[in-house]
């Protein structure tokens, strides 16, 4: 992949973490000297912002993207109001409906003052509503300014977390498998699983021995219910397309190459099929029944020890830890990269990057804009806010306000950091260049039809390619 070691190494070193090698795709960007009139406070408990806010009549309206952390944001809002007197309204869009919710809310008389955009693609859709925040402390404390969404010298989107995803596995079940007298694979350690061939060998043998292992299947249910297809239509599809875009040497990053692609070849469609078939054919749920399964179902299966593996990101720790009856010990939660059979994947790491960026509504009142900036600077700069970010939201935050002691300590975040330190080639988050949410939904729908036997793989491939071209054309 097009590694940008210096970018993430700088970020992680600034957080007090020793790094030997890491990589991630990101948008090109740059700093600017412009000012939006925002606050320039950057760290500490933001006492000046709090004092100013307590005498104001405005408010903050935060439209949250992720349902799984909605309760945490609501608690943050309560604490912030107690400290500052400023009301923070938190509204969380349903899974898969953020764009439609934002469209509905943004035109109301009291619209969101803080919302999220999906990188440069999202910025193009919402640039008429994004404020230039280049003069704020939020931007000043961003560890690497190139991560911001920029345009013509202005800064319009700030990343709030570095995240990673791959195949989460329960090491206790893996060790039980390696000790099985009936196992037929020649693999005896997770260290030996470093490509699709070995992963497939182990998974299929584990599935054959699922009764002996006390599991319902190797993989958790591939959630293909409407609104719950994002792990496949976005995160899984990212793997083959990131490799494809990486081969376009005319661009410095996979995201830029993807944005410039009016069409896709889907060159590595067979690699996508490799891993998707492995998921659905070695699962706790029959492929024909996956249309009723949600992400919560999938994560509960893993948390309750009914399966050994599940694809998801480090943000899923709460979905595991908070399940009633959870039996998976934190020390047993580990990651495999998503192997698909690519050449050289023995040195592939997790998919690491950032997807969503915070933006301030340029149509909101000046007072509410300032209060919104104050709130975000408190969240990522104050002792209380940083504690929520690290220990409740579980973010690996890209701001220099976080010390080594304030980095996340949950097992999935620690695994992401360990993979970043391991010197492997992280997969870029090229899905920031996918043409639209509708495109991803079309891919998700076709995957469901394929799993149910209603569509051939060749038809899935053709749809994935033609829908890309159609959605790009609509934007022109």
How would you describe the overall organization of this protein?
- The protein has 476 residues and is an alpha/beta fold.
- It has two domains: 5-162 and 354-427, Periplasmic binding protein-like II (D-Maltodextrin-Binding Protein, domain 2), CATH 3.40.190; 164-351 and 435-474, Periplasmic binding protein-like II (D-Maltodextrin-Binding Protein, domain 2, 3-Layer(aba) Sandwich).
- Helix content is 42%, strand content 12%.
- The protein is built from 19 helices and twelve strands.
- The strands form three sheets. Strands 6, 7, 8, 9, 10 and 12 form a six-stranded mixed sheet that branches.
- Strand 4 and strand 5 form a beta hairpin.
- Helix 10 packs antiparallel against helix 12 (269-281) and helix 15 (366-381) packs across helix 16 (383-391).
- The radius of gyration is 22 Å and the shape is globular.
Structure in a nutshell:
It is built from 19 helices and 12 strands. With 476 residues, it is an alpha/beta fold.
List the helices and strands and how they pair.
Blueprint lengths: L4 H10 L32 H8 L5 E5 L5 H15 L3 E5 L5 H9 L7 E4 L1 H8 L10 H4 L8 E3 L2 E6 L3 E8 H8 L17 H13 L1 H4 L3 E3 L10 H17 L7 H6 L9 H13 L13 H9 L3 E7 L3 H5 L11 E4 L11 E6 L3 E4 L5 H16 L1 H9 L19 H11 L3 E3 L9 H15 L5 H18 L2
Parallel strand pairs: 1-2, 7-8, 10-12
Antiparallel strand pairs: 3-11, 4-5, 5-11, 6-8, 6-9, 6-10
Mean pLDDT: 88
Instruction: Please tell me how large the radius of gyration is.
Output: 22 Å
Give the tally of structural domains: 2
Into which percent range does the helicity of residues fall?
40-55%
Specify the overall morphology. Answer: globular
Distance between the termini: 29 Å
CATH architecture of the largest domain: 3-Layer(aba) Sandwich
CATH topology of the largest domain: D-Maltodextrin-Binding Protein, domain 2
Major β-sheet annotation: 6 strands, mixed
SS summary, helix count? 19
Structural category = alpha/beta
According to CATH, what is the class of the largest domain? Alpha Beta
């Amino acid at each position: 992949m097009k590694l940008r070691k210096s970018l993430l190494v700088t970020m992680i070193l600034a957080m007090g973490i020793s790094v030997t090698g890491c990589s991630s795709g990101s948008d090109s960007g740059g700093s600017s000297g412009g000012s939006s009139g925002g606050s320039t406070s950057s760290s500490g408990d933001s006492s000046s912002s709090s004092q100013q806010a307590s005498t104001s009549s405005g408010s903050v309206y935060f439209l949250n993207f992720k349902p799984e952390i909605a309760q945490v944001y609501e608690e943050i809002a309560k604490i912030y109001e107690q400290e500052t007197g400023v009301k923070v309204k938190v509204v969380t869009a349903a899974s898969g409906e953020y764009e439609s919710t934002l469209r509905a809310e943004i035109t109301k008389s009291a619209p969101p003052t803080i919302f999220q955009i999906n990188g440069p693609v999202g910025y193009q859709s919402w640039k008429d509503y994004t404020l230039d925040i280049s003069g704020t402390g939020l931007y000043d404390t961003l560890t690497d300014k190139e991560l911001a969404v920029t345009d013509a010298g202005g800064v319009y989107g700030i990343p709030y977390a570095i995240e990673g995803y791959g195949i989460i596995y329960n090491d206790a079940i893996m060790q039980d498998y390696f000790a099985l007298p009936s196992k037929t694979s020649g693999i005896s350690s997770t260290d030996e699983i470093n490509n699709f061939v070995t992963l497939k060998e182990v998974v299929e043998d584990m599935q054959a021995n699922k009764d002996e292992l006390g599991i319902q299947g190797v993989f958790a249910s591939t959630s293909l219910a409407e609104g719950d297809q994002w792990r496949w239509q976005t995160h899984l599809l990212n793997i083959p397309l990131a490799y494809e875009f990486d081969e376009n040497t005319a661009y410095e990053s996979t995201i830029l190459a993807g944005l410039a692609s009016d069409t896709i070849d889907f060159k590595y469609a067979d690699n996508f099929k490799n891993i998707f078939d492995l998921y659905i054919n070695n699962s706790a749920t029959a492929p024909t029944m996956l249309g009723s399964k949600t992400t919560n179902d999938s994560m509960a299966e893993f948390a309750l020890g009914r399966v050994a593996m599940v694809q998801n990101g480090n943000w899923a720790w709460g979905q595991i830890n908070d399940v009633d009856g959870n039996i998976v010990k934190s020390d047993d939660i580990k990651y495999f990269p998503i192997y698909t059979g690519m050449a050289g994947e023995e040195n592939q790491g997790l998919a690491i990057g950032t997807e969503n960026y915070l933006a301030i509504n340029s149509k909101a009142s000046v007072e509410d804009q300032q209060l919104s900036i104050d709130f975000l600077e408190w969240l990522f700069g104050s002792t209380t806010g940083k504690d929520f970010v690290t220990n409740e939201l579980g973010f690996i935050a890209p701001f220099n306000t976080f010390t080594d002691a304030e980095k996340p300590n949950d097992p999935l975040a620690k695994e992401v950091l360990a993979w970043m330190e391991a010197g492997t080639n992280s997969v870029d988050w090229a899905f920031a260049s996918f043409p639209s949410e509708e495109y991803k939904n079309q891919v998700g729908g076709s995957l469901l039809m394929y799993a149910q036997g209603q569509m051939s793989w060749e038809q899935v491939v053709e749809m994935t390619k033609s829908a890309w071209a159609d959605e790009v054309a609509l934007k022109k």
